[in-house]
Structures are given as C-alpha cells and as structure tokens.
Amino acid sequence: MNAFAGSIDRPSSYIGRSVSRPNAKRLLEGRGRYVTDLVLPRMLHAAFVRSPYAHGKIVSIDIEEAKALSGVCAVFTGEDLASICAPWTGTLGHFSNMKSLPQVPLPLGKVMWSGQPVVLIVADSRAIAEDAAELVIVDIEELPALADPVQAMSAAAMSQELGDNICFATKLDSGGVEEALDAADTTVEQSFVFGRHTAVTLEPRAIVADYDPSENRLTAHHATQTPYQFQDIYSRHYDIPEANVRVIAPDIGGSFGMKLHVYHEEMAVVGASILLGRPIKYVADRMESFVSDIHARDHRVTGRLALDRDGRITAMDVDDVTAIGAFSSYPRTSAVEGNQVIRLMGAPYDFSSYRANLSVVFQNKVQTSQYRAVGHPIACAVTECLVDAAARELSLDPFEIRERNLIPDSSYPRTSPTGYQFEKLSHQVCLARLKSIMNYDALRAEQAGLRQKGILRGIGIALFVEITNPSPAFYGVGGARISAQDGAILKLTPSGEVHCSISVTEQGQGTETIIGQIVADQLGIDREKVRVMTGDTDTTPHGGATWACRGAGIGGETALQAARKLKANLLAVAGLILQAQPGELDIRADWIVETVTGQQRISLAEVARIAFFRSDTLPPETQAQLSVVHHYAPQGYPFAFTNGAQGCLVEVDAETGFVKILKHWVVEDCGRIINPLLVDEQVRGGVVQGLGAAFFEECLYNEEGQLTNGSLADYLVPMACEMPDIEISHVETPTRDTELGAKGCGEAGTAAASAAAMNAVNDALAGHGAVLTQIPMTPTRILKALGTI
Amino acid sequence: MKARAFDYMRPKCVQEALEAFVSADGDASYIAGGQSLVPALALRLQAPGLLIDIARLDELRGLSIADGHLRIGATTRHCEILGSDLVREHAPLLAKAAPFVAHPAIRNKGTFGGSLALADPASEFPAMTLALDAIIEIASVEGSRRVGAGDFFIDLYETALQPGELITAVYVSLATAKTRTAFDELARRRGDYAIVGAGIDAEMQGDFVERMRIAFLSVGSTPVRVGAVEAALTGRQLTPQAIRQAQDVLGTELDPVGDEHTPPEMRRHLARVLLGRLLGRLEANV
Ligand SMILES: Cc1cc2nc3c(=O)[nH]c(=O)nc-3n(C[C@H](O)[C@H](O)[C@H](O)COP(=O)(O)OP(=O)(O)OC[C@H]3O[C@@H](n4cnc5c(N)ncnc54)[C@H](O)[C@@H]3O)c2cc1C
After folding, report:
1. Around Cβ A609, how many Cβ atoms within 10 Å?
2. Using CA atoms, how far apart are residues B181 and B93, in angstroms rounded to an integer?
3. Among candidate residues A106, A105, A102, the one with its CA nearest the CA of residue A61
4. Is the pLDDT of residue A9 over 80?
5. Complex ipTM, two decimals?
6. CA angle, A123 as apex, A121 and A125 as ends, to 5°?
7. Separation in Å, CA of A708 to nearest CA in chain B
8. N or C: which end of chain B has fewer CB within 10 A?
C-alpha cells in the first residue's frame, strides 16, 4: 500500500508541517472547559469517607449524625449501591487462569487498601459533604496487611475466595536457554527494583453524573480518555440501554492512561445520581488522587544474559514479580504491564533463546494498571542495563556491543523470540544517528578529562521498541468491549467548511490538531476551515478513543480515508456543476481546480451553496452526499512497532549522591510524522516522565501498607529546573499497513529515558564499585551503593 | 480538601488584632501570607473559628535601619527580603538564603514573621535568625517584649509565642567590614524544603575566625545552632585540617531524625559535607 506521499509545498498540504494547536490559545487564556468548571442546575457534590487501614473488616458504620447535618442530601454505604450496580471483575479471557475479586462501588464487608472509599456523602457543597464526612463513624477491625510483593507470593491468601495471592502467572520459553547459558563465555545477572509511581495529572479525576429518570437517561461529564468504554460500562453495570447513556469528555488536563480505568468513586457517583435523580459532581482532590488513582510499575526483576566471546547475545532469561494492589483493574486488567514487560525484553537484539517467568501478585495497596508506556520502561531498563553490564565485563564500548547485537535493518520482517512480529524497524540507523548527535567521542574525551579533576560524568544509552497501533489482538480477543477501530463523520457546511467529529480523543497531546491537518490536507482546504470535535458519545461515532498509541496511526488513517471519501463526493457534485469529469478535477486551496493545469474553476463555497440551496439547478436524480461516515480498523500486523535510541549525560556528586542531568538525546522512528512540533513535545514529555521515574517519583509505603508520601510536597514530580535540554532527531519508516504510514510516538520518550539514565549513572560510578539497579536513583540509594552511608 | 467554615476579619491596627484574638477566646488564628495556614485549613489540620488578617497592617510592614539594627517588619514578604538592597548590605546572610525559600509565587505572599511564628525546622529564615542571633519583638494585649532568637525556638512548631501574641518585627545587628557569610542547602528539587541546609555568619580578621555562628535547618525538631563546632573554630584559621575537625565535631553534635526519603545517617553525612563546603567558601571569601 502506502500510495500516500505528502508533498509538503502544496498550499493546503499539512501532513509533515509543524503547525500550532488551534486549542492552545483557548486553554492558555483560561477558557478551557473542564469537568470541574461545569455547574448544572440542582447539582449536588460528593465526598468520601475512606479506609484508614490497608486491610480490615468493617464492623459497623454509623451515618446518622452525618445524615442529619443541614445541607446533606444523602449518605450511601456499600449495600445501597451494590443493589443497583452489577459487580465488575478485572480479568481478560486471553490471560488464562487470571483471577481477581469482583468489585462493587463501595465495600460490603472488607476494606482492601488504605484510602479505599467506604461511605459516599452527597450534599449541597463539597465543603458540607466534607463536614459530614467528619461525622461518620466507621469501625474497622484491622487485619494484617500484605505490603511486600515478594512475601505476597507465599503468604496466606488475603481473601479466601482467591486461594492464593497470585493474580496471573505465565511463562515464555523459546527453548535452548539452559544450553546457551551453559555454553556462554560470559553471563551477567542483575536484580532490579522498580518502584511504584503515579500519573499526577494537572487536572485530577472528575465526573458530573446526571441521571434523568423520566427518560432513563444518564449523561456523564467525565474526565476520561475513553468515553465509549465508559458508555458501555455504565450501560451494562447499571442496566441502562447503551443508547441512553451519553458520556462527554470535555477538555481533559492530562491522562497518561490513568483516566481510562474504572474507579470506585466514579461508579458510586453514577449510582448515587441514579438513586437521587439529580446531577452530582465529584472532583478528586490531590490527597485522594494519591490514594485512589492507579499507580504504575512496581516490579522485582531478575535478568540474565548469556554472551559468546565476541560479545554476541545468545540467550536471555528473566523473572518478573509485579505487585498490582488488591484488585486487578477493570476493564483492562492489571496484567498487561507484566505481560508487556516479558514480551518486550531484548526486543532490539538478534538472539533466539529466551525464557521468562511472570508473576502478577495481589497486595493491600491501591491498584496498579496501565500508565504511559505500559511495561516498556521495565523491559528496556532490564535489557539495557544487562547489555551495559556485559559491555563492562567484556571491555566493550556501549555503542560497540549494541552494534554487534542489533537486528539488522535489512532483515525485516522479523518475529521476536517472544512472538512479536516486526514489520520494519531502524535500529542501526537510529543508533548511528544517536552517536553523531551526541557527539559521542567528544563526550567521552571530556568525561576522561573531568575525571582527572574528580568530576564524575556518566554517559548512558538505551534502545527501545514501542508497541503502537494496537489491533483487536490487544483487548478484543480477550472479551473486553474495547474497540480497536475508529470512526469519523465529515460534514460540509453550506459555507464550504468541514466539520469533523471523530472517536479519537484529546487530553492535551494535540490529537484534534493532527486530525484537522490530515482532513485539510486530504481535502485540499485551509486548515482554519476544518473544525474538529471529539469526546462526546452522542455526536461522534463509537471508537477506541485514546489508549496505547493509536491517535495518529488509527485515528489519523480514519480521518484520511473519510476525507478522501468526502472529496470524491464533492468532486462528483462539482463535475455536475462544471460539466466536467470528476477525475479531471481536484481541490486546492478551497477551490475546485483542473488537475492538470491547476486552473481555478469554482470555489468550494460555491459548490456547497449550490448543493445545499439550489439543488434544483443540479441534474435530476442527483443526490449530493455532503456528509460521510467512515470507519477504519487496523488490519495486517497486529501492532505497528516503532523503535528508537536515547542518550543521557549526567554528573554525579559522589559526596552527596546528588545527580545533575545535563543533557538527554532521543532518536525515534514513529513512521510518517504528521506534525514534527507535536511529536517532539510528546517525546519530551515522555522523557520527563521517564526521568521522573529514574530520579524522583516513588509512592512510598510502610509495612502497614500506608502510603507515606501522598502529597505533592513529599511525592517528587520532576520540575523544569531539574530537567535537561532534550534534543530530538527523527528517522521515518512508515508502516505499509496504512495509507498514512503513521505509527505512535506518545510513549517513546518514557520507554527508554529511565534506562538511559540508569546506564549514565552507572557509567559515572564505574570504578567506584557501585552499581544501581533500583529506581528512583535517590541520593540516599546512590550513597548506599557507594558505601558512604 | 475544603476548609471548615470560619469567620474572617481585617483589623485596622495591631491593637485591634490583639483584642480580636482575646475576644475569640483563643478560637482564632492570625493569617499573614497564608502560605502555610491555608493549606493547613484545607487539610483540616487546623480549624479556627476566626481568621484575623494581619497582612495589611502598616505597623508590621517594611525594612529600615533603627537603633543600629536592621528592622524587618513581621509582614515583610520573602520577595521583599530577596530584592532589598538594605538586606543585601546589612544582613547578607538573609539575602543569600532568600532565593532558596520556596518558589516565586509563594515568596510573593509568604512573610518573614509568618515563617518565624510557624517555626518549621526545615525553613530557611528561622535558622538564619538563629545564625544572626536576631531579636524578635512580640506584642500582646499586655504590651511588648523582646526575645532573642536563641530562646525563641522551643520544639517542633513550638516557639516562645503565647496564644494571642503577635510577632511585630525582627531586629538584626548590622554586618561590619569583618563579616563573612555563607549559605547553602541540599534539596532534591529547586525550591523544595531542603534535606539539610546551613548558614554561617562570621567575623574574620584576615584568615582568623574571631566569631562564628552556624545554624542548620532540617536536622532536628527546631533550627539548630552548633555551639561545639563554633567553639572549635573560634580563634583559628580555616585550614583544611581545622575544617575536617569541625566536620568531625558536627558529626557528634548533630542527632538528626529520618524521614521516608532520608535516613538519619544520610542527613548527618550531608550536614558534614555541607559544613565543609561552606567553611571552604568562607575561607576563600567568595
Ligand atoms: C509549596 C510551598 C513551598 C514552600 N517552601 C518553603 C521553603 O522552601 N522554605 C520556607 O521557609 N518556607 C516554605 N514555604 C512556607 C512559606 O515560606 C510560608 O509563607 C511561611 O512559612 C509562613 O508565612 P506566611 O506569611 O505565609 O504565614 P501564614 O501561613 O499566614 O501563617 C503561618 C502561621 O504563623 C502565624 N503567624 C503569621 N504571622 C504571624 C505573626 N506576625 N505573629 C504571630 N503569628 C503569626 C499564623 O497564625 C499561622 O499559624 C512553602 C510553602 C508552600 C506552600
């Protein structure tokens, strides 16, 4: 396929151009409309009483005083909502033998993590609801909490129904690993700890649920990236016909995967609105976000690499224990992260013997689940740290050992030992590009010079593979009602503009901008004349929305094909008006032109005017089709894999353990680039999240399962002052599965930044007998590794 | 995170503020910049019935030279300290510490008096008033009194202030030609409360230390003066050997606490490193 080739110098050619985001000015001016801004008539406000214990039996709940407080409308506990809400269970059919307890909005007998909502109060204002929350008396008999993931493997089941604490376990074995390890000239082994962190979106989770009993209709204004998924869930779990459920996701202040999971609070608020027949608003405050938003990562990994005497990898063997909290999340489960960890290990390298063991375990903490770059940073860090360890062992330069082991760019298509099919990747080009933009040899010379003066600089690199454009192989095959396709409606206005409503959604990354670019480009009209609308299940077709990396690759292809369809219709009408063959006409800069000469014949606005208001002047039986609906589902490869390479330069103060991140480089290949500016910013944002994981972000728990740093004063997100300049370079290998050729880029930055940072720190500390295999790499951990404290 | 309901008043003078507190039977709180109080209200850690807003009282404002001292009105904002020529000239240690206090938005509101009254052991200004041996002027309905910084900080968030008392001003002795100062801290991110920080105010005759006051932040339940270290250095030259000895003395003098990010031994170690670096700067007079 791949008939598409954007020629960037045409007047309305936008694909490949760095145009700014039409919604940026509105948001900057403070005119964004977030769920929090919404005020509806008769609206009530929700607050929750939460469990102070990580595990316990609910003995009694006394809500009388709270109910009696002036301004309180209702107080709900577990039974009230369980009676109208079907429970949900976070398992998927293609993860065999996976288990998790059924969940209900508010607990019926037991609390399973500290911060779990127990009682819902609905009042005239949030402040009154919080006043009432102080009056609720919840008597909980504390039970021992499972807080340590490794202990959870063998400890008594935290719930009898489960039998043990294993949510899901699986193995991969391509064969030959044992033999390769025996025959290896060099083996390296390291054990890693990856802490928990969380999304910390600027806008917290928020919902206004508005149930109208007269029509049995639910409207949920919901800060989510997946409105269609929630339409389905509210419909099924509250038994309302799907067509009667409308989910509107207005402006969303960041999501990163966090806002696509089902949360107890949102489900409870929907239930309360159904019971009361009034709109109810719930906005998580920051303290609530820390104890109820999904967390991410939390892995203990041991990895081994076998190499021959030339430094060629012969086998890899890994074991991952990942702890997910008390429940597997719904509807996407909490097993996808671990599954991707073990399948992405070693992905850039050319070897065939691979073995992996995955254990996904429960513990008494808030759920972990999909967050930007699901599983990627773990697989990348383990692989890349082991490769660097091998390089040190063999006295090879980090670039050299990778050059020897990369899958050659000329050898695609390929299937990885873990079963992933790679259409075409560009590791060799990316690695060479990275070396040149880093000015690697000069950096090494500078490093050596500074080392003489006692200044410890470290250079680290990491290669990655990213999963994008997921087909139904991701969730659909497992029985989840999560769409891999998208749909778009394009409508011509009587003034000759185009309105596009599409099922991919916007959370700040620029989805609407690129969709507008593609539509304008394909139709040959000015970008200002395309209006893009997203995030409303009543006015856009059903689709996958935002998850994994799919907005450009799948949403973009949907828009492209829809625009081509509309263009054909418009040229047909124009042909009738001009008495010309549509095949000899084109649209350029809002005009119908003769394709060959470029001669302007009639403006698109005039075509629209005639078609809408003077259809009597068109030949009899003409029915001009001025709107089109088009759906597109990915076919061909189950996923479009992308790849890239990152470099990181740090300076470690060996006396204090403080690290200054001096510079970061990224070379990435996301196929066809629609808007370089937006791709760069996606990559930068992703890198910052990866560096956050490497140096700052960690949800710390004590032995009782209490989160001890659940505020923005104690949980450290990376800030501008600590972040380096991030230089980005692109390689373009379009996928041939689509006309557009775009793959995803949103997770590329996050995938490898922490791995590059770990390798940089360990490079700086080389010769000091310290190797860090735990992130975040805090000053304390660095000084401990050095033996200073 | 919504505060419980409270009443609010903006008195016209200090006397009215003091009387309002008494009339509220103690169920009141002064509010200055609100940068510490408002978060505490929102988290419902505090829920006074009445807020008495002192931020606009003229009597509490301003920086001036009075009686051979630099007078810092209680409601002088952090940003004013940071931008003041008077402070730079007469209390250089404060000028050096000011950029490390929080972020611009907070410095625009937070006040010097509020910071002292709160007495967060991780705050820069309380520790620096200790290093400067400043005098704190306190008003109550009974009248005015003065307390030396050394007697002001009693325990975690506990000071010599009695309920209803108001800090009105702080007096700092003027720097002389012999004054040398140094401040630094180790914070994970710019503007964060530091893991450890320290300021030194010294009088030096050539290379010799005539007088030295050193105060640490974030190493205990109050800001901490390290008398044994000061004594070990007074009358001596700041040689590498003297500095090493001072670091050893510090190691035995400090008894820091740990938190979720930092064990006590880490804090002690960093305090020693920081002391060494600051003394090195004093010696080099940079
Ligand atoms: C995000 C953030 C980061 C921060 N980082 C730092 C930092 O790095 N370093 C640092 O030092 N501080 C930091 N702060 C705190 C800031 O400096 C506060 O402004 C300061 O601690 C209190 O000053 P205030 O005027 O805001 O006091 P308020 O919040 O108004 O009051 C605090 C307390 O002091 C009492 N009070 C105020 N003025 C007086 C007075 N004149 N007499 C008697 N009692 C009084 C009040 O009743 C209240 O109990 C930070 C604050 C925030 C929100």
Report:
1. 14
2. 6
3. A106
4. no
5. 0.96
6. 120
7. 7
8. C
Q: What is the pLDDT of residues A532-553, one digit of tens each?
A: 999 999 999 999 999 999 999 9
Q: Give me the DSSP letters along A412-443.
A: -SEE-TTSPEES---HHHHHHHHHHHHTHHHH
List Cβ neighbours of A479 (8 Å cut-off, separation of 6 or more): A92, A93, A94
Closest by Cβ to A655, choosing from B191, B265, B273: B273
Please report, for the domain that includes residue B70, its CATH number.
Answer: 3.30.465.10
Range of the domain at B135: 58-173
Residues B37 and B157: their CA atoms lie apart, in Å, by 13
- Whether B64 and B169 map to the same domain: the answer is yes
Residues A365-370, mean pLDDT to the nearest whole number: 97
For residue range A585-610, list pLDDT tens digits in order. 999 999 999 999 999 999 999 999 99
Per-residue pLDDT tens digits for A298-325: 999 999 999 999 999 999 999 999 999 9
Nearest CA to A261 among A325, A334, A317? A334
Contact list in A for residue B260 (CB cut-off 8 A) is 700, 708-709, 714
Asked which of A39-43, A152-156, A199-203, B72-76 is least confident by mean pLDDT, the reply is A152-156
The gap from C-alpha A526 to its chain's centroid, in whole angstroms, comes to: 31
Query: To 10 degrees, what angle do helices A376-394 and A398-405 make?
Result: 110
Rounded average pLDDT over A642-649: 98
Cα–Cα distance measured from residue A77 to residue B138, given in angstroms and rounded to the nearest whole number? 51
Question: Does the pLDDT at position B257 exceed 80?
Answer: yes
**Whether residue B153 sits in one domain with residue B105:** yes
CA A486, CA A511: separation in Å to the nearest integer? 13
Q: CA-based Rg of chain B, rounded to a whole angstrom?
A: 19
pTM score of the predicted model: 0.96
Decide if B190 and A788 are in contact by the 8 Å CB cutoff: no
Ligand 1, residues at Cβ distance < 6 Å: B 29-37, 39, 54, 74, 101-102, 106, 110-111, 113-115, 117-118, 120, 123-125, 161, 166-167, 191, 193
Task: For residue A712, give the chain B residue with the closest CA.
Answer: B192
Q: pLDDT of B170-210, one tens digit each?
A: 999 999 999 999 999 999 999 999 999 999 999 999 889 99
B189 interfacial to chain A (CB closer than 8 Å): yes
Question: What pLDDT is stored for residue A5 in this prediction?
Answer: 47
Computed over every residue of chain A, the mean pLDDT equals 96
Q: What are phi and psi of A100, to 5 degrees?
A: -165, 155
Residue A172 at interface with chain B, using a CB cutoff of 8 Å: no
Residues B111 and B157 reside in one and the same domain: yes
B31 plus B100 within the same structural domain: no
pLDDT surpassing 60 at residue A2: no
Residue B11: what are its φ and ψ, rounded to 5°? Answer: -65, 160
For the cut 60, the answer to whether the pLDDT of residue B55 exceeds it is yes
The beta-strand segments (E) located in A478-626 are 486-492, 498-502, 530-533, 585-588, 591-594, 600-603
C-alpha span between A789 and A770 (Å, rounded) = 13
Question: Average pLDDT for residues A434-449, to the nearest whole number?
Answer: 98
Q: Report the percentage of chain A scoring pLDDT > 70.
A: 99
Establish if B103 touches chain A: CB-CB under 8 angstroms: no
Domain assignment present for B79: yes
Sketch out chain A's domains with CATH numbers.
Answer: 24-32+485-632 (3.30.365.10), 35-143+200-292 (3.90.1170.50), 295-472+636-786 (3.30.365.10)
| In contact, B119 and B222? CB cutoff 8 Å | yes
Contact B189 A130 (CB under 8 A): no
**Optimal mutation site among A719, A723, A777, A782, interface B, most CBs of chain B within 10 A:** A719
**Neighbour order of strands in the sheet with A56-62:** A110-111, A56-62, A137-142
C-alpha span between A44 and A40 (Å, rounded): 9
